[in-house]
Amino acid sequence: MSYRALYRVWRPQHFRDLVGQEHVTTTLANSLTGGQISHAYLFSGPRGTGKTSAAKIFAKAVNCLHGPAAEPCNECESCRAITEGSLLDVIEIDAASNRGVDEIRDLRDKVKYAPTEVRYKVYIIDEVHMLTTEAFNALLKTLEEPPSHVIFILATTEPHKLPATIISRCQRFPFRRIPHHCVVQRLQHVVDQEGISADVAALEQIARVADGGLRDALSLLDQAISFSGKTLTEEVVLSIVGGVSEHSLLQLLTYLHEKDRSAALNQLDEFIVYGIEIDQVVRDLLLIIRDLLLAKTAVEKASISETIKNQSSGYRSEELMYWIEQLVLIEQQLKWVNHPQILLELFILKQTSTSISKQQEVMDSFYEQPPQVVEKVAPVEQVAEKRELVSKVQKAPAKTTNPNQGSRNSSIDPSISRIWPDILHSIKQQRVTLHAWLADGEIVETSDYAVTIAMKGAFHRDTVLKPENKKLIEQELEKALHKTYELKAWTREEWERQRGKDEISIATSAEAKDSDDDIVKKAISLFGEELVTIEK
Questions:
Q1: What are phi and psi of 240, to 5 degrees?
Q2: 445 and 504 co-located in one domain
Q3: Which site from 14, 307, 419, 514 is most exposed, i.e. has the minimal number of CB atoms within 10 Å?
Q4: DSSP string over 277-304
Q5: Residue 383 located in a structural domain
Q6: In a shared domain, residues 98 and 154
């Protein structure tokens, strides 16, 4: 006898064997025992979740010699014939290759003939969404009012492509992705029956890759057994699917967290040498960081291992969320670059570097320090001249400024500029709409008591200055800088205009002073320095 694939050997033969679809099997079993058999059913859901298997089980149960019953006996002649696919009254049609109107017209002509061996003639149309519009129109009337001896079962992975007129004439049963733990349990049952020794980690990895499809999981298991024989390990599964082990991924994240750049880059090189594609590394990193984040927020998820739950406490939620955001961007850019490895290496370099903010702090501290000037020994005449100049400056009246308004020429406090992105991020977590408006502004002036920002327009300015918004921003400033600041906001146009006025005012004062100096000089030249008294 020729070899049969595991997914064919272990195809469910009873409703109770369908894993994770109890909401479907219970309803179908009740309709069979209660005699409420519909003329058309629509089974929709992801691939490998049991749609076609459920259709065959239903065809057996409705035609069983001991039924219609909640479960087929699988022993009578009709049940065995349907299982083997030799019963002429149960017709399977692949709509992907029989999608034209001619095939459906042929089906419509044959529907009127009564079954020859069993109670009901059952048409199972797989991938029904592949039918053309004309084919759907040809099927519509027959599907609405078929003969009493005909049952239609339509199966599809894309129900949204079906016309509403078709869906409305069927009882719809949505098949769900099979839960992770159910897939693992089923795989464990299969390896036990097949006499295979398999690590739980290997079965977990297969279930994770299968993503809720049991047929995919059984196909991967079949391939892994062919490769390894009677012993199945996680390393074998990873070598087949091209994935990264959980231990290696957690090790890489540890290096990132500890900012061990060399070790992180070496770990990435090991993945590449092992033959793992960069896009696979990115996907696996995203999934494991997602699991760490969910475990940290106390979300119960069957696919999260105990190792991940134990290690999640070592990370900050903000750190994990930032990594996810960056990796999502990398995943979007992978298809546009010739050397995708560079993107992931750049990500590692950024995460393990002394951050840009620290570098900025060093630069800011450098500029905040007064310049050290090395004075040379000057001649006596220059020293005397310098002392006279200093004396005049000391006697000059001090320039007064408005206490309610900072100097337009003053520089922006670098500590506030440095912390501003963190303040915006914190505001985004609390009030997304405010962050959207505030992101369009920029700090244009700071003082000991106020922070002034210029906004894109009047609506932006008014939104930011609403009492509740202004209060939130000022609270975040105080939280970040440990000091109370008042928020001021202008439109960019208002700010430029106001700054221009201040500059004109300063220039006018300077011109007035020069004018006064000229008058004094003229008076001295006319009357002599002894007769001129300057009053201030």
A1: -85, -45
A2: yes
A3: 514
A4: -HHHHHHHHHHHHHHHHHHHTT---TTS
A5: no
A6: yes
